[in-house]
Amino acid sequence: MRPIPPGWLVGLFLAVLVLGGGAVAAGIGPAGVDGDTHGISDVDGFDAVVDTAPDEGPALLIGDDGIVDPARSTDDDITMRTQLRQVDLAGEYGATTRFAVPDRVSRIEVTLPTEAKSVEATGFETDDGTTYEWDGSTDEPWLRYRVDANRTSEPGPLAGDGDHLFVDTDEWGLVRVPNLRVGWGWRGADVRLHRETAVDGEGAAGDVVAYLGPGEEHVREAHGQRFRLVVPEAADMEEPPEAVLDAFADGSDALRVGSRDPSVFVVAAPTDDVAWAVRGLQTGPADMWVRDLERLDDPENVWMHEYVHSRQGYQANPSARWFTEGSATYYAALLTLERGDVDFDTFRRVLARGERSPQSGSVLADPTTWQNNADYTKGALVAGEVDRRVRLATDGEATLATVFRGMNARDEPVDGAAVLGLVDDAGGSAVAAEADRFTTTEAVPSMWDREAHDEAFGRLPARIGYSIAADDAVRASGSYRDRPVAREPVVLVTGETLELAVEIENTGGTGGEYDLTMVEDGRVIESRDGRIGAGETITERFEREFDSTGDHEINVGGERLSVVVREPAEPTVVDVDVSPAAFTLGETATVTATVRNDARLPARGTFAVAVDGEEREPREVFLDVDGVETLEWAIQPEHDGEVTVRVGDRSRTISVSPTPTPTEPGETATRTPGFGPATAVIAIAAVILAVLGRRR
Known about the structure:
Radius of gyration: 36 Å
Number of strands: 42
Distance between the termini: 129 Å
Number of helices: 10
């Protein structure tokens, strides 16, 4: 437990890659959210357009791929940072959105929500007060505005006692991050948008939900997820925060369906001053709020219901839409039963509601026939019955989670036929035939009794999960490096190989079959299958080499990775040295060049030593991020005097002395000054004369 500090509490949002980003409430569906709609003036005039926080569905993207870089933006990305703040007027909150614009961006247009008011702009121009065009010259343009905080809805299943979905009071606010539509154009390679959301002052922000005001944040990390539970000062939780985090951790472990979000943001919504329309609301990738008075020993367990929604990474067509609320209601009850927080009779009563009229006569595959929230009631009973039958047919080696995981692993929208196909794969044709009858007709199963439950659920079934959570599970290999790399996204350069170590764990009570497929952009790359025993953990390894640039989605068993492939950067020569610095013509000198990679990508370059402009002996260099390499050449200049040696853009001038004049044969290298051959002849003559003189 720790206080929420003032200042920047940043929530990073992956606008393009989010799945299941619509608002899903315990009490309403996506259609129940009152939201704004707005468009951009000229979609065709932009290379990319994105709705940063839409009310329904995943973030809308029009244009080129590779738009949003979630955690590792580069200097070539647009950074959009929205800072939220409380204002004096209740029912509103303030926002300031700042952009950092790289040189290659040619155009930016921002459309604010229709209810935005009191707009101030620097570096933007507008004709209508809603759509703002960048002036093309301001490096860090910004927009400051106010937004209506209060959103309402009609009550639905699991309804609260009011009509609020989001609200701002005098003391605090539980608000939805404003949805901006941003369009931009660029020159050269793709330019991506990196979005951050923060709170100015006390509070905390997730991806699309923010709390403004005093409170405490409790954090738990489990099974590759980081749970952030924000408890406002005005909240009076029925359950201890640590108990709620325990339940989330247990649910994360038990629900082996792939698609775990790395961060889950939860706010305990105060109920003393606000009447909420629903008991809980999940929206965005993994943001949610739950009323502070909700309990964990409730078979409808709203904490777990909203968490299950965060694990639904698929997009459902109408014929499969029943599964969204049906599975959330069923798993909330089942996981609460398995944790020992409710007994079987209480669990049974919740699912048995699906037998009652009028919901029992609804056709789940046809939402137009639903009565009395049939997707919650009949949908939960059918989900449970399919789970029971699959377990019996496979002796516990497969469950409804097998179907759920298969739905999450699909890149295309899932329809009713796809769900039935996954049931067939998991439990066989007989189970699929019953599932077909229960979902495409008015037929309804009967709720099973304790004896039938013990038969199907008594021994813990195979609970097979896949994860890429180990520190070294994601690696890059090749000429540049062979080491673990960061994810979200994985950044590679052409010619590198992505290596994935996928951990397969069976935490169940019996062995089971696993079927693991690596899918890239919807295309199957490689498949692995096998059997794994109870309590066993094994690892399967996948490799994928990328020869061209581009942005890719990798899906392995429902675990998703974004991979960005770029051209390698260019390394830089930071120093050149010649040893010795001065020498004689004909001698050899050693040229040493230090090459460094200061870019955020691996770098490749070819460097030759140039002696007076003549290049020799090119060397290819492959460097990791922050890598350094030393190159050496041996040179023999061809003339004396000053010689310029250059490698890259660094050079040195050296002094080369001429070769000494060679000595004559027989000569002594050292001669006495003034004593040459002529002097010697004169000296000899003088000696002879002296001798003759004495003889006289």
